[in-house]
Amino acid sequence: MLKIRTYPLGPIQTNCYIVKDSEGQCLVVDPGEEGSRIIQKIENMNGKPLAILLTHAHFDHIGAVDEVRDHFSIPVYIHREEQYWLMNPDLNGSSRYPGLPLVSNKAADHFLQEGQITIGPFQFEIRHTPGHSPGSVSFIFKDAQFAIVGDTLFKQSIGRTDLPNGDTNMLLNSIQGKLLSLPDDCKVYPGHGPSTTPGAEKVSNPFLK
């Protein structure tokens, strides 16, 4: 049985997720900041991390990638369309905010594409959900009935599209076709804020009316 834990990190309180199985093996999703805290949480739970998964490569989702990767010697997965964002502060947006550190990581180890994927004991689905950014993806754990969706869909809101390479129509199409098609009671974990469900968003999200 899978368990998911949420850790809001950094100045923008970006949700980092740790998905863990009964044997302690785990996946780290969007280590955006506070790498030492993420490492400590994993070690406290006797976790055995297998990989870092990135929903997309805006700076607040990737700030601790190398610290966590290097500590545990694990690979990083990202969609090919944002492979260079990991290394480039102008692309990942960190150069736009004076006072925040420039974010630059090493290259990813693997590229995500739509479809089923297996990492160790974890079997889940990748859905390409662009709009907030061109390489945004969502991770669908069907058997455990939850999805990690990055900044695509939020509780009663949707992801920003006013950033470079954002596209409102594309985002809405991603939400309607890839996320609201999930079971109404599927737990949806966003990049910021509390979890929700497709059923709740169909009823209460003002952007989806």
TrEMBL record:
UniProt superkingdom: Bacteria
UniProt-listed Gene3D superfamilies: Ribonuclease Z/Hydroxyacylglutathione hydrolase-like (3.60.15.10)
Reported cofactor(s): Zn(2+)
All residue ranges annotated as the Metallo-beta-lactamase domain in the record: 13-192
SMART domains: Lactamase_B
Record InterPro entries: MBL_Glyoxalase_II, Metallo-B-lactamas, RibonucZ/Hydroxyglut_hydro
Sections of the chain in a coiled coil: none
PANTHER family: HYDROXYACYLGLUTATHIONE HYDROLASE GLOC
Protein name (Swiss-Prot/TrEMBL): MBL fold metallo-hydrolase
